[in-house]
Amino acid sequence: MSQANSKKNIAVLISGRGSNLQAIIDAVEGGAISASLRVVVSNVQSAHGLERARKHGSEAVFLDPKAYPARMEFDAALVDLLKSRETDLVCLAGYMRILSPGFIRSFSGRIMNIHPALLPAFPGLDVQKKALEHGVKFSGCTVHFVDEGVDTGPIIMQSVVPVLDGDDVETLSARILKEEHRIYPLAIQAFVEGRVKVEGRRVRILKT
Ligand code: GRF
């Protein structure tokens, strides 16, 4: 691999349990992601993901929104933190804050998110419930680049799961989550290897 000499740094932003973070940690530890998990940042002090990061030996930072007058200042501090850790890629993994345009410009084309629906269907929150209520027969998850809209950036990878007759939010969410844990590391590794090519809205993943 041509970029093997320059290991990339990943930062993960979380707000909660961090199961996707754990999938990323496992992939880094197992070699499926050839990058360093440089720092994990949470806007929620009690987020279980912070412990997961510490266990892995990564820096885990709680950045308190209450310590800043507004989103702009909070995001500016976040940008400073991530830049000081030489972050190449920012992965959102259950990060429950909208990023300001300033943040997005600072890491333009280098922010990914995992979303538990097949975008552009069901952007936003509580999307497994919305998918069930709408009666779709298939749902899934999407890894996408983050732009200034809500879940609107170019789609990198998707995985489809069936919606079964007996499903409730819990069972559907669990089926989707399993796929989240599978495809997020794949998308991250493709990026780390320089195989993700963005052409307008279309993203091509070059073969290894
Ligand atoms: C996941 O369903 C993810 O798709 C969404 O938020 C949830 C985070 O879960 N953006 P976890 O914290 O990774 O377990």
Q: Could you say which overall geometry the principal axes of the C-alpha atoms support?
A: globular
Fraction of helical residues: 25-40%
Gyration radius (Cα, Å) is: 17 Å
| Small molecules (ligands, ions, cofactors) in the structure | 5-O-phosphono-beta-D-ribofuranosylamine
Mean pLDDT: 96
Question: What's the CATH C level of the largest domain?
Answer: Alpha Beta
Low-pLDDT ranges: none
Based on secondary structure, the structural category is alpha/beta
Quote the CATH topology of the largest domain: Rossmann fold
Overview of this protein structure:
By secondary structure, the chain is of the alpha/beta class. It contains six helices and nine strands; from the N terminus they run βαβαβαβαβαββαββ. The termini are close together. The structure holds 5-O-phosphono-beta-D-ribofuranosylamine (GRF). Residues 14, 16-21, 93-94, 114-116, 177, 180 line the site of 5-O-phosphono-beta-D-ribofuranosylamine. Residues 14, 16-21, 93-94, 114-116, 177, 180 line the site of 5-O-phosphono-beta-D-ribofuranosylamine (GRF).
